Amino acid sequence: MSLTLNTNVAALQTQQYLNTNTINTQNALQQLSSGNRLNGPADDPADYAIAYKLDIKSASISTSINNGNQALAMLQVAQGGIEQIGNILTQLKQISTEAASSNTDSNDLQALQTQVAQLETEINNIANGTQYGGVAVLAGGNTVAGFGATETAAGISTINFNTAAAGNWTLTTVASATTGGGVTLTMTDNALTLTQSVYVAQPAANTVANVSFSALGISMQVNSALTGVSGASANFTVTGGSSSFQYQVGAENQTYAQINVGINSFGFGNTSGLNLQGNVGSQGAAEAFMTQIDTATTWLTGQAGSIGASQNEIQYQVANLQSMNTNTESAASTVKDTDYAASMSNFSQAQVASQAAVAMLAQANAIPQEILTLIKG
Q: What are the φ and ψ backbone dihedral angles of 141, each rounded to 5 degrees?
């Protein structure tokens, strides 16, 4: 190689190696300090893409695990409500058994009937009040066929049957003699003969008035078109509702990654199960009521068993998800986490090489000085 003054090729080559060793040292330091082998796509584009996908999958699985735990908590709330309703059925059975005895006089029967009415009301209270995250898990959602399903009658803006007893209903609007031209609305279930009339004054134009049939679980909004209506009626059928809850317990949008749990309505008077319409006003009525309670208890325990089965299914799914998440995290770790033994070895090698390159650069920079020797000689 020729000896030149303007271009020190040896120094340039040494600088090139020094830069490479410095970069290697910095990369090794970054891996050792961060704990990540991949601190950016440039470190290893292919592995970086794999690690990124694994991280997304792990995050989705973690959320699915949380969904499953939330589902379990929700079903536990439902199970608690069912247990309390079961306690009420037990007490109703005790009352009806007492009422069916000949040594219970009329005054006792009246007192027992008062207890029955209070307990039946409490069943509804529990069904509507057992909530998780604002969702009434035992109330169900009724479906309506006929009137109210896709249309409303003249003067009725909206109508809600969510907590109404199942059966064939008739809505009747009758002109009222009350000053102001209001109307009386009567809801009658032909099967259960439940009737409630509510007077509502004529709403002003472009306004609505809320009407609540609290005893029947029906509410509606009426408008000024009700004025002068007389004898108008409409028939519809309310089917005892059930609630369906879907839980995403997988990282994929697949049917096997979802669990659907159906919970029937537990409200008193709903023909889906707790159809307790008897009384203890007489010995014979009490005996018949005992049979109704037995039927309701059988239905209740069946529903409790169904919820328990759903809890087991979700627990298995959650356990499987936890195993999947562990394996996914393990796979991601092998790709992105720092191997400290290898990284420390690389750091030491790059550091020594950098120090050697610095020393050699000093020697390379001294080469042009040899030209002075030639000139002096």
A: -140, 110
Nearest alpha-carbon partner for 47 in 342, 344, 333, 371: 333
239, 259, 283 - which closes a domain: 239
CA distances from 115 to 108, 118, 121, 211, 365 (A): 11, 5, 10, 29, 106
pLDDT in tens, 234-245: 677 777 666 677
Is the same domain home to 171 and 85?
A: no
Beta partners for residue 320, in sequence order:
none
Q: How far is CA 332 from CA 28, 51, 74, 209, 337, in A?
A: 20, 5, 33, 61, 8
How many structural domains is the chain composed of?
Answer: 2
Strand partners, 211: 220
pLDDT tens for each residue of 353-367:
777 777 777 777 777
**Rg of the chain over all Cα atoms, to the nearest angstrom:** 40
Q: How far is CA 241 from CA 13, 267, 270, 273, 275, in A?
A: 83, 10, 8, 11, 13
Residues 275 and 159 occupy one common structural domain: no
Which one of 239, 273, 302 terminates a domain? 239
How many helices (H) and strands (E) in the chain? Answer: 6, 12
Looking up residue 67, the CATH number of its domain turns out to be 1.20.1330.10
**Which structural domain, as residue segments, surrounds residue 183?**
143-239
Same domain, 166 and 135: no
32 close to 351: Cβ distance less than 8 angstroms: no
What's the rounded Cα separation, in Å, for the pair 237 and 239?
Answer: 6
- Distance, CA of 123 to CA of 240 (rounded, Å): 15
Same domain flag for 184 and 225: yes
Q: Which two tokens stand for residue 294?
A: 């037995």
pLDDT for residue 319? 92
Residues 137 and 249 occupy one common structural domain: yes
Higher per-residue pLDDT: 230 or 376? 376
Contact at 8 Å (CB) between 117 and 298? no
Measured CA to CA, the distance from residue 278 to residue 159 in angstroms comes to 29
Residue-wise pLDDT tens digits, 192-222: 666 777 777 778 888 888 888 777 777 888 8
Q: What does the pLDDT read at residue 270?
A: 47
